[in-house]
Specification:
The complex is a heterodimer of chains A (334) and B (272).
Chain A (H helix, E strand, L loop, with lengths): L2 H34 L6 H16 L6 H8 L12 H22 L9 H23 L16 H7 L16 H23 L1 H11 L1 H6 L4 H27 L8 H12 L4 H27 L4 H15 L14
Helix pairs in contact in A: 1-7, 1-10, 1-11, 1-12, 2-4, 2-5, 2-10, 4-10, 7-8, 7-10, 8-10, 11-12, 11-13, 12-13
Chain B lengths: L7 E2 L5 E2 L2 E12 L2 E12 L3 E5 L6 H8 L7 E6 L2 E2 L5 H6 L2 E3 L12 H7 L9 H6 L3 H19 L15 H14 L4 E5 L7 H18 L2 E5 L3 H7 L2 E6 L2 E6 L1 H5 L2 H8 L5
Parallel strand pairs in B: 5-10, 5-11, 8-9, 9-10
Antiparallel strand pairs in B: 1-2, 3-4, 3-6, 6-7, 11-12
Helix pairs in contact in B: 3-6, 5-6
The chains are: A mainly alpha (334), B alpha/beta (272).
Chain lengths: 334, 272
């Protein structure tokens, strides 16, 4: 096979893997948007916060250490123990559920029935607040999350695809990051789980009911409050998973929260209300930006097209199909 | 006067039981507007109770008070022999009061079967973890509830559209699906907000038949609001008449029909 084609395939595969991570973030948006009509700007910060909390718990960090030290002039930073990764993940999930409850109890309970733009502004406020609390709680230094996920290229795939080059010395087999493979599998399981949960369980049915019609949901005995906490918790769980994957890939740091911005074009493509849409949208953006960079960006445009390609694609979609690929059709009745 | 505990026998020989729900001196205000003024009436077990009145009389407000969507400023609601504290609508639904809406509130994106299954939510008690694992108790519960839902779908003759998304159905069928969802909860009190509004004669006849059949077959207590006087008089055992938020009549269809206040309210009266 010609070299160029092989490299293109490799870029395509890597694009798919990157797309899975985008999709993971977008998924959190879709969950909350569907059930409550809130576009949660804080989703990215939630992923950052979850990753920081996970790191803090694993390493036995004292929460609010700086604050405590400043007030009581002490010098405590660590409890001096380490929590195994799995237990820490469960504990972090507990923190995310508590966070969901607080958000519902102290913010959105008072904003029920408000304009979408007001709800959106509230989530922007929430994003900055959570960012500050995260820094105060666990410190703002860059952390490396080590939860036992594999790092680096996958040699098995590299070794077993080398023959595709048919003796071409330039081709060493496909280079695919092991972490990306794990992320893809996890994301696939997560999506399948969420879809099955929504379709076949009592709470899932109640969730869909709330997403569809609040009044009717109340009339069949569904507590809106409970469902909203549940949905925020699920979004918190998705944020945790995204936080772990991105954190393991590029470190737990502020820029993690900016992946939320990458989720926007994904949602434009996939539609704000569709779980499969988030996945397909993520994959298209991932593959699209990698292939564009490789085939057009680098040779003709001087590179760095990955920064804007996703947004340009989203813009084109907005012009021709504003509801996205899978979103509900926008019908205005007169 | 009706006996408070014994109940009565209807003209067609059905036995009506004791009081299920009693409204005592209910007053509901929206700002300065009194939508309901000091109204009292009761609903008895097994009866079909209608609330009628001209537009803006406060009928729907009354239904919303019963189902908890509105909270009255004054008065007491007694349900199954005890005074009901202020509650959220979903808590009231869990107590066995199901309802339909004047402007159909169905889950448009879901199939008919799924809609009816949401009516069973109050009967599902397994916790979220068991539900997530989806084994044993959760599975058995789903099967049992599915059977009830299918029975009701059969009963209301909507088998043919079981899997159809509700959004695609015509108006009349949507009304019937909404009835099915409310009925699926096996309510002790079923509230119907204008079940025949906007229907043609044939659809009205169908709906009337279903309301009677439901009452007959399951012994469901039904309270309904309706505009069509002919339908109301044929269907109901007792009727409350409202006008401008006040109760102006209460009794059997015949009594109400001959009540001078009611005639005035409907036909208008010359003020001299």
């Amino acid at each position: 096979m010609p070299e160029q084609l092989l490299f293109t395939i490799e870029v395509f595969l890597n694009g798919l893997m990157a797309g899975v991570l985008y999709a993971l973030v977008a998924l959190g948006f879709v969950l909350i948007y569907k059930a409550s009509g809130i576009f949660n700007f804080a989703q990215g910060v939630m992923a950052l916060f979850a990753a920081m909390t996970l790191y803090g718990i694993m390493n036995g960090q004292v929460p609010f250490a700086h604050l405590i030290n400043a007030i009581f002039s002490t010098e405590i930073h660590y409890f001096g123990w380490n929590v195994p990764a799995l237990a820490a993940i469960v504990l972090t999930m507990g923190v995310m559920v508590l966070f969901s409850w607080l958000v519902q109890r102290y913010i959105f309970r008072y904003l029920v029935g408000q304009e979408p733009i007001i709800l959106f502004m509230a989530t922007i406020g929430l994003a900055y607040f959570l960012e500050g609390v995260g820094d105060l709680m666990w410190g703002s230094d860059i952390k490396t999350l080590e939860v036992g996920l594999p790092q680096g290229g996958n040699f098995w795939i590299e070794d077993n695809t080398r023959w595709l080059g048919f003796g071409n010395e330039e081709f060493y087999g496909f280079f695919i990051d092991s972490l990306d493979i794990v992320a893809s599998v996890v994301a696939a399981v997560l999506v399948l789980g969420l879809v099955l949960f929504a379709q076949y369980t009592k709470q899932g049915r109640a969730m869909r009911a709330v997403a569809d019609d609040h009044q009717a949901a109340l009339s069949v005995g569904v507590s809106l409050n409970f469902i909203w906490i549940l949905v925020w918790s699920l979004a918190g769980f998705v944020a945790l998973v995204a936080g772990i994957m991105w954190g393991a890939k590029s470190g737990v740091q502020f820029s993690l929260s900016l992946i939320a911005l990458k989720a926007l074009p994904v949602l434009m493509l996939g539609g704000f209300t569709s779980i499969p849409g988030a996945i397909v949208g993520g994959l298209i953006i991932g593959v699209g930006e990698k292939l564009f960079e490789f085939l057009i960006g680098l040779p003709y445009l001087g590179g760095a097209t990955e920064n804007w390609f996703a947004y340009m694609l989203a813009l084109i979609f907005l012009l021709f199909r504003p509801q996205g690929l899978f979103g509900e059709k926008i019908i205005e009745r007169v | 006067m009706l006996d408070q505990t014994e109940g009565y026998t209807t003209a067609d020989g059905r036995k009506i039981g004791g009081v299920v729900m009693e409204m005592k001196n209910i007053t509901l205000r929206f700002g300065g507007v009194e939508a309901i003024k000091d109204i009292s009436f009761d609903i008895r077990e097994g009866e079909i109770r209608a609330i009628i009145g001209p537009n803006g009389a406060g009928k729907s407000s009354m239904l919303n008070v019963i189902s908890g969507f509105y909270v009255p400023q004054d008065g007491e609601v007694w349900y199954k022999g005890s005074r009901r504290p202020p509650m959220k609508p979903y808590e009231i639904a869990r107590q066995g009061i199901a309802r339909t809406f004047q402007n159909i509130a169905l889950f448009e994106g879901m199939s008919v079967l799924d809609n009816v299954m949401t009516g069973r939510l109050t009967h599902m008690h397994t916790g979220i973890w068991r539900q997530a694992i989806w084994r044993g108790k959760a599975e058995a519960e789903e099967t049992a509830n599915r059977e009830v839902a299918e029975k009701i779908i059969d009963f209301l003759e909507i088998q043919a559209i079981r899997k159809t998304p509700v959004a695609r159905l015509p108006y009349g069928l949507k009304k019937r699906v909404e009835l099915a969802r409310a009925l699926a909860a096996e309510p002790s009190l079923l509230l119907l907000d204008e079940p025949m509004a906007g229907m043609n004669v044939e659809e009205k006849e169908d709906m009337s038949r279903f309301v009677l059949d439901v009452n007959d077959e399951f012994g469901t207590t039904i309270a309904l609001i309706e505009h069509d006087m002919g339908v109301v008089m044929d269907l109901s055992d007792r009727v409350v008449v409202m006008d401008y938020g006040k109760k102006i009549g209460d009794g059997t269809p015949d009594e109400v029909r001959n009540n001078q206040d009611v005639i005035d309210a409907y036909l208008g009266v010359a003020h001299d």
